[in-house]
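Instructor's aside before we start: the two examples that follow are unrelated to each other. I chose them only because their records fit on one page, so don't look for a connection. First example below.
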Amino acid sequence: MEDVTGAQLVAEALKAQNVEYMFGIVGVPVIEVAMAAQASGIKYVGMRNEQAACYAASAVGYLTGRPGACLVVSGPGLIHALGGMANANMNCWPVIVIGGSSDQNQETTGAFQEFPQVEACRLYSKFSARPSSLDMISSVIEKAVRTSMYGRPGAVYVDISGDMVNAKVDRSRVREVPCCPPPPVSMADHIAITEALAVLKGAKRPLLIIGKGRPSGLYLSLGKVGQASFTHHWER
């Protein structure tokens, strides 16, 4: 029989999903999450502002294809991270934001820095949820990580109430959730590729612009070929 805390479950779930980096600012009630993350082998980087932490975590997502984690405290701490979440969503960068919040039994009572965090993050993320119990933490983390990478990559948010951070549960009650596989790769339409190649062969001064933008992909601009012009974009 072994008891584990909510903070340990969050850290272990992130590690199980191959999340290697965490950026954030510690404080009540998430300091134990940062400590558990380091104990689990996640590289924690302390920042001076939550927005900068979210930018850094989303940059890791852009560079590696796997989301970086951003850890923030409740209320204003999370609000500062919203800019980074919106930026990640617009640029298709996977990032998972984990925010502490007031205790569940203090909701609607004006608890310290109480704020409707799950609802607020829905405007700036692909997925926003709070685990209903300790044994659901691993499942919610897995879904968040998977959602951040699949389809159009973007930001996701997981809310952890203060009383869940240090609460304990027997490890035998916690279901192990395997690491989600890499997202499926979308291929360009074969007819569009054939058309692009045909126009490219007939172009006198072709120009290829390849880059990462919103939405991500490859742009082919051939300018005028006789009286016609051709521009095509392949989604990632």
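Example two begins here.
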Amino acid sequence: MALSLGMAVGSAQTVCAEPAVHTVTIDSMQYSPPTLTVKVGETVVWVNRDPFPHTVTAQTGDFDSKGIAPGESWQFKPTKKGKFPYFCRFHPTMKGTLRVE
């Protein structure tokens, strides 16, 4: 009995990966990580684990989360490259940096 093994020859497939999602945790009055580097079009999610509200407010005015309640989150998808230092309007000593490539 002869056994025939067939080989499929196909064209190369292009796989479009979903843009990455990055998380910044707000806990103990700190953004963690304090500096995050992402690509244009990727999503950044800030999750508030503190028992009081915080904001994510760019010094450049490019983004502002308004208040993020305890246990809630806010997301942002950058559309341009640059370095965006940010802070919490309620607690100005809290600072972070978003770098977009």
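Strands lie at 21-27, 30-32, 35-38, 43-48, 57-58, 73-76, 82-87, 95-100.
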